[in-house]
């Protein structure tokens, strides 16, 4: 026999399997060899009538099944059956050159149950013993009414009477084939084979399961004998339902059209099998249950007798499970004594999505992404893995130093593991929070899925935030006249900028503020004189001067303050002037005169302003620029407040000559400079930023609304507001011009009070952005408040 053919006789069926590997790339046809020697090409249109099934098993192997009562089967005494097929195999569609393998098969089947029904994929077959009493007592009346017609038929000729929804139909056996039926008798039996959904069939429902039923009586009449045999056949159509994990196949236990006297019905045996092999212990993998009304088989998806295969549908990964089941049900009842009922049922689940998952096994301390992707059936393979934007085959990925490997799980599924170091150039790095880096790995898996090798893509993004950024620590110290801050350079990288207040620490600030910036190989050292810009005087008193200098570490991209480095020292200076931003002025002045003067008698321009404290060597004044006779003048972009400490000679007597002066004259000019321009750096985040990541943008005009002041004072102030193109405040945008700015880009506003009158002051109270030039327009986004 040819090695690529296997056959068996489960129950009463010739079951032939051809090896798909042998037939791969070849063409084949099957021929049926008639016992008389002739051959018939097996064609689809004759299959149902002849009791043949040509299909594939779940593995794709061609399957041929034939009933032992099928066409061209040699039948010896209803016990020994033989059928010969020719398998023609050719490497071209031209079958004339095909190799022919003649394959004879023999099956023995005995004993037969009085009635046997087979529900095949494409036909229903009932065969009954001819010596059984034909019609149930209950139904005799129905059938007797058919007799007047029956009498007219010819002797020795079988006839068929169908009871269909459209009425009774009587045909000669010789006409059965024309209607798609096959009817014949053997030594001791008659059989009827019907296709599903024939004109004479009807759809019925038995215990909730849809059935296709052909009700018929076979009639044989001789002069002395009228034989009427119920050849009704009824088979379930469908009855399967699917969950994510199991198939449920339900068959009615008792089928009323086949068992007229249901009260006498007794199930004798229920057995199941797969691919024609009976399963001896079905409870190992399946659940086989039956009650009075139903037989139910639960098949877990993935049960080994079936086939689970991977596939892709609409870009979704999933599986399809198929299994070819059969059920044998033997029952007894009073009419038929015993019925053997066989259902052959290939079942294929619908597409079951199985979304693979990316599992993040990353251990931050290993500084390597460890990502598992699964789980998959063995019929899935990894073709390409795109790391960053670089598509690599698994082998190429290994060459690049990425650890890519397959893992097999105990349940037989598999996954793909990938390891990529954090420091790999394809890994995105972002500085987040205070001292953390967010590492992001972007991968895109491309898989070949299932026997059809369908392509499946699965992008994934894995992140890991690690506190691996060390914030610099500064060291502060002072000498007699300076404060110092030493910041290690190694830690100062692209993430941060140093600021003095709101001004970035750069050459410009250093020069204009009289700082000294030096670097050695490890540190940046900033020297700040005690009376330079940016110093904060924490305590200014007669006894001491406490000064502080702050250097602010800000995030380069958001200007968020990360850390403030401070140095604070006490100084023993007895000679200083401190002009506070709020207009308070403190002056400590030693007065070394000979002869020494009475410090308590020193005063400011307004002679009622006396020192706050004094001793023999020095006096300490504190006053506000708006008091004590302080004068103001403008000089370039500075305001200069001026006062004078003086000591008036004591003249004795006060009211008349001669004059004797003992004390020397003393005059000390006190000057406070204030910049007329103040730069205010202010950051804020627009809260209604679109979620999809595109930064917000906008445009508008800058208007100066001094109308509040105007309304109150009935006096137009000479105020000019401008938007500068950069922080140098040298070039400005035209007024009322649309300015387009990307998000997070700074804007530079200049508000200038042009009035020369000394008693006019500008307080920039609230500045806001809003959507229109209407003063009351909402919503408003504050730029500065107070
Ligand atoms: C079934 O009935 C239809 C309509 O009456 C008819 O056209 C068709 O030929 C019939 N089929 C068979 C197999 O007799
Ligand atoms: C009935 O069976 C006999 C014997 O097997 C066969 O010769 C005959 O052709 C069959 N008739 C039909 C209509 O199939
Ligand atoms: C049912 O039939 C099977 C197969 O023919 C047989 O192995 C089993 O013993 C039978 N069970 C009963 C309860 O008769
Ligand atoms: C028999 O089993 C079926 C299926 O499990 C169920 O739907 C039905 O209700 C049961 N019938 C009885 C009488 O228990
Ligand atoms: C097989 O095992 C893997 C890993 O434990 C698991 O993710 C998967 O869900 C399992 N698959 C099935 C069908 O049980
Ligand atoms: C993943 O790769 C596929 C095929 O190259 C591509 O169509 C898809 O856009 C990629 N997905 C991502 C998120 O890059
Ligand atoms: C991956 O795992 C790391 C370490 O457990 C964790 O920090 C990180 O948030 C995870 N990332 C994602 C995207 O789940
Ligand atoms: C990062 O900052 C947190 C507190 O914000 C601190 O507990 C941690 O020690 C810092 N880690 C490093 C490496 O500086
Ligand atoms: C650099 O200057 C800092 C601060 O003065 C000092 O601590 C450090 O030792 C100096 N480094 C070298 C290499 O001289
Ligand atoms: C001005 O500021 C100094 C130092 O912060 C403070 O001592 C003083 O009270 C303030 N004066 C006024 C009028 O607020």
UniProtKB/TrEMBL annotation:
Keyword Lyase: no
InterPro entries, per the entry: Ig-like_ZP (IPR058876), ZP-C (IPR055355), ZP-C_dom (IPR042235), ZP-N (IPR055356), ZP_dom (IPR001507)
One Pfam family from the record: ZP-N
S-adenosyl-L-methionine recorded as keyword: no
Alphabetized UniProt keyword annotations: Disulfide bond
Domain ZP: 578-786
Highest taxon listed in the record's lineage: Eukaryota
PANTHER family: SI:DKEY-19B23.11-RELATED, ZP DOMAIN-CONTAINING PROTEIN
Protein name: ZP domain-containing protein
Organism the protein comes from: Pelodiscus sinensis
């Amino acid at each position: 026999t040819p090695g690529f053919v296997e056959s068996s006789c489960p129950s009463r069926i010739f079951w032939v399997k051809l090896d798909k590997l042998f037939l791969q790339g070849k063409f084949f046809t099957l021929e049926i060899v008639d016992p008389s020697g002739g051959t018939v090409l097996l064609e689809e249109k004759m299959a149902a009538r002849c009791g043949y099934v040509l299909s594939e098993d779940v593995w794709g192997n061609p399957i041929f099944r034939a009933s032992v009562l099928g066409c061209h089967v040699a039948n010896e005494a209803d016990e020994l059956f033989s059928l010969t097929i020719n398998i023609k195999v050719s490497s071209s569609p031209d079958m004339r050159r095909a190799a022919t393998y003649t394959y004879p098969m023999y099956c023995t089947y005995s004993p037969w149950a009085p009635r046997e029904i087979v529900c095949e994929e494409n036909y229903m077959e009932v065969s009954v013993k001819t010596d059984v009493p034909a019609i149930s007592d209950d139904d005799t009346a129905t059938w007797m009414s058919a007799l007047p017609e029956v009498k007219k038929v010819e002797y020795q000729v079988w006839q068929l009477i169908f009871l269909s929804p459209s009425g009774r139909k009587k045909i000669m056996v010789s006409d059965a084939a024309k209607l798609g039926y096959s009817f014949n008798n053997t030594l001791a039996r008659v059989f009827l084979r019907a296709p599903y959904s024939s004109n004479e069939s009807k759809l019925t429902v038995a215990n909730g399961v849809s059935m296709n039923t052909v009700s018929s009586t076979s009639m044989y009449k001789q002069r002395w004998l009228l034989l009427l045999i119920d050849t009704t056949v009824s088979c379930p159509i469908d009855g399967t339902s699917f969950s994510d994990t199991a198939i449920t196949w339900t068959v009615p236990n008792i089928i009323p059209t086949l068992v007229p006297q249901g009260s006498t019905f007794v199930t004798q045996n229920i057995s199941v099998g797969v691919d024609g092999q009976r399963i001896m212990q079905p409870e190992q993998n399946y659940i086989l249950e039956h009650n009075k009304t139903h037989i139910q088989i639960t098949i877990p998806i993935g049960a080994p007798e079936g086939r689970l295969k991977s596939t892709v549908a609409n870009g979704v990964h999933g599986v399809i499970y198929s299994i070819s089941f059969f059920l044998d049900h033997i029952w007894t009842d009073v009419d038929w004594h015993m019925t053997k009922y066989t259902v052959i049922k290939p079942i294929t689940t619908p597409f079951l999505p199985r979304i693979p998952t990316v599992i993040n096994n990353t251990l931050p301390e290993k500084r390597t992404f460890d990502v598992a992707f699964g789980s998959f059936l063995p019929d899935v393979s990894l073709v390409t893995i795109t790391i960053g934007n670089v598509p690599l085959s698994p082998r190429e990925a290994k060459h690049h130093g990425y650890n890519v490997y397959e893992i097999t799980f105990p349940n037989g599924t598999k996954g793909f593991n990938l390891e990529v170091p954090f420091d790999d150039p394809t890994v995105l790095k972002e500085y987040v929070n205070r001292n953390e880096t967010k590492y992001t790995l972007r991968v895109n898996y491309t898989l070949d899925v299932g026997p059809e090798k369908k392509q499946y893509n699965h992008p994934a993004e894995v992140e890991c935030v690690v506190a691996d950024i060390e914030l610099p620590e500064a060291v502060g110290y002072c000498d007699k006249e300076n404060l110092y801050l030493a910041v290690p350079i190694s830690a100062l990288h692209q993430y941060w900028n140093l600021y003095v207040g709101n001004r970035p620490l750069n050459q410009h600030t250093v020069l204009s503020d009289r700082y000294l910036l030096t670097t050695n190989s490890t540190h940046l050292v900033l020297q700040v004189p005690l009376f330079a810009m940016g110093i904060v005087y924490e305590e200014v008193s007669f006894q001491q001067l406490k000064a502080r200098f702050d250097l602010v570490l800000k995030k380069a991209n958001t200007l968020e303050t990360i850390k403030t480095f401070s140095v604070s020292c006490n100084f023993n200076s007895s000679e200083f002037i401190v002009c506070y931003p709020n207009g308070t002025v403190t002056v400590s002045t030693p007065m070394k005169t000979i002869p020494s003067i009475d410090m308590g008698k020193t005063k400011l321009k307004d002679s009622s302003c006396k020192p706050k404290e004094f001793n023999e060597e020095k006096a300490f004044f504190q006053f506000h620029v708006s008091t004590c006779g302080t004068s103001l003048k403008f000089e370039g972009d500075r305001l200069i407040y001026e006062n004078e400490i003086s000591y008036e000679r004591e003249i004795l007597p006060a009211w008349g000559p001669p004059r004797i002066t003992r004390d020397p004259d003393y005059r000390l000019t006190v000057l406070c400079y204030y910049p007329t321009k103040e730069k205010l750096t202010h950051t804020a985040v627009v809260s209604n930023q679109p979620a999809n990541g595109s930064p917000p943008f906008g445009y508008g005009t800058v208007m100066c609304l001094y109308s509040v002041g105007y309304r109150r004072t009935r006096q137009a102030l000479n105020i000019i507001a401008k938007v500068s193109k950069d922080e140098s405040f040298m070039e400005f945008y035209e007024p009322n011009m649309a300015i387009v700015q990307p998000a997070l880009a700074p804007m530079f506003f200049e508000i200038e009070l042009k009035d020369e009158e000394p008693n006019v002051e500008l307080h920039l109270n609230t500045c806001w952005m809003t959507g229109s030039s209407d003063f009351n327009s909402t919503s408003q986004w504050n730029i500065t408040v107070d």
